[in-house]
Design goal:
It is built from 15 helices and 2 strands. It is mostly helical and 307 residues long. The protein has one domain. A two-stranded antiparallel ribbon has the order 1-2. Helix 5 crosses helix 6 (112-127) and helix 11 (215-226) packs antiparallel against helix 12 (238-248). The longest helix is centred in the middle third of the chain and has 22 residues, at 144-165. Residues 1-5 have low confidence and may be disordered.
Length: 307
C-alpha cells in the first residue's frame, strides 16, 4: 500500500535514530515492557478514529503537553507534595518521564487486557501515598479532587500543545478529547474530571485560590531542560520545548507562579516549534505505540497519518 501523501520520508540514518530512541523510551526494563501489537485484534479503551488517538501520536505535543500538565500539578500544594516527595523526578527525571509516558500511551493505545490492569496497579500505588503539605495539611494521592485535577491538567496540556503547535482543534474536538478521557478517568478514580472544555474552564476557575508559587516549579523546569530526554540529533531543541510548555499555561497561572516572559519562548522560536510539531505529525515511527496499535487492529501503519 502506498504511503499517504501527508507522510514525510526521513533520511535513513535519522529515521533509524528516531526509531531507536522511541524503542528505548518505551522499553524501560525487563518486566515493564508493553507490547502494543498484542493481543491481535483486541481493542483499546478508545477507538482508533478518536481525537485522542490522533493527538497523542504526536511526540512533541506529548512532551510539551506533559511538561505543561506537570507545571499545573506542581502549582497545587497537595499534588506537588505527592509528586515531589514520592517520585524520582529529581534523581532520575528521564526514568520518571518514561514511566509517565508509558502509562499515558498504554491508557490511550494499549489493549484493554493490558491497560486496565496497568491502571489498577497505578490506583493501588496511589492508595499507599499519603503525607503532609509544606503547610502541614494532610493529603492522600487517592483523593478524588486531586485525581480530577491531575486528569484535567493532562488533557488540557495535550490539547493545548497540539492545538497551538501542531494543528488547530475545534471546540467539538476539544470536547471530544475531554469526553473520550472519561472511561480512563473513572478507572483512575477521577470521577469528577471534566467532560468538556466548559467543565475544564470551570475547574480551572475553582482552583484559583489553591494554586500557589513554589521553588519546585523552577527546579522542575531546570531538570527538564537539562535531562537527556531527546535523542542526540534533536537535543538542541529540548530547552525550547520546555519553554513552549510554559507558553501553554494560562496567563493568570503563569503570573501567580512567577513564570515571567524569561521562561517562555524567545523571539522567533514559536515558528520553529510549530514547524517541528507539524513535521512530527507526518513522520511514521514503526516503534511508536500509535503505529503498533494500528497494526494490532489490522489497520495500515499510516492510518493516523492520512491526509
Amino acid at each position: 500500500m502506498p504511503l499517504s501523501a501527508s507522510v514525510i520520508r526521513l533520511p535513513r540514518s535519522l529515521q533509524h535514530r528516531l526509531e531507536a530512541a522511541t524503542s528505548a523510551f518505551m522499553n524501560l526494563q525487563p518486566g515493564r515492557i508493553i507490547d502494543f501489537t498484542r493481543p491481535l485484534g483486541e481493542e483499546a479503551l478508545l477507538r482508533p478514529d478518536s481525537v485522542s488517538w490522533r493527538v497523542c501520536k504526536n511526540p512533541l505535543a506529548l512532551f510539551i503537553g506533559g511538561i505543561a500538565a506537570v507545571i499545573l500539578e506542581l502549582a497545587e500544594p497537595a499534588v506537588r507534595a505527592g509528586v515531589w516527595e514520592h517520585s524520582s523526578f529529581r534523581k532520575n527525571p528521564v526514568g520518571r518521564l518514561q514511566r509517565t509516558g508509558l502509562a499515558a500511551m498504554a491508557t490511550v493505545y494499549g489493549a484493554r487486557s493490558v491497560s486496565e490492569p496497568m491502571i489498577a496497579g497505578v490506583v493501588r500505588m496511589h492508595e499507599r501515598i499519603t503525607g503532609q503539605t509544606a503547610a502541614g495539611l494532610p493529603y492522600a494521592a487517592s483523593d478524588g479532587q486531586l485525581l480530577d485535577w491531575v486528569q484535567a491538567t493532562a488533557t488540557f496540556g495535550f490539547a493545548e500543545a497540539y492545538c497551538r503547535y501542531v494543528e488547530p482543534l475545534s471546540q467539538a474536538e476539544y470536547d471530544a478529547l475531554y469526553r473520550e478521557g472519561g472511561s480512563a478517568s473513572r478507572l483512575y478514580g477521577a470521577l469528577g474530571a471534566p467532560r468538556s472544555i466548559v467543565e475544564s474552564k470551570m475547574l480551572f476557575h475553582s482552583m484559583r485560590d489553591r494554586l500557589e508559587p513554589s521553588p519546585v516549579v523552577f527546579e522542575f523546569l531546570q531538570i527538564m531542560s537539562e535531562a537527556r530526554a531527546f535523542p542526540r540529533p534533536l537535543r538542541w531543541m529540548q530547552g525550547m520545548m520546555v519553554r513552549a510548555a510554559v507558553e501553554v499555561i494560562p496567563c493568570w497561572v503563569r503570573e501567580r507562579l512567577g513564570l515571567t516572559a524569561h521562561f517562555g519562548l524567545r523571539a522567533r522560536e514559536t515558528w520553529i516549534v510549530k514547524l517541528a510539531g507539524t513535521l512530527s505529525d507526518r513522520i511514521v515511527l514503526s516503534e511508536s505505540p500509535a503505529v503498533q496499535s494500528c497494526v494490532r487492529l489490522g489497520l495500515p501503519a499510516t492510518h493516523l497519518y492520512s491526509s
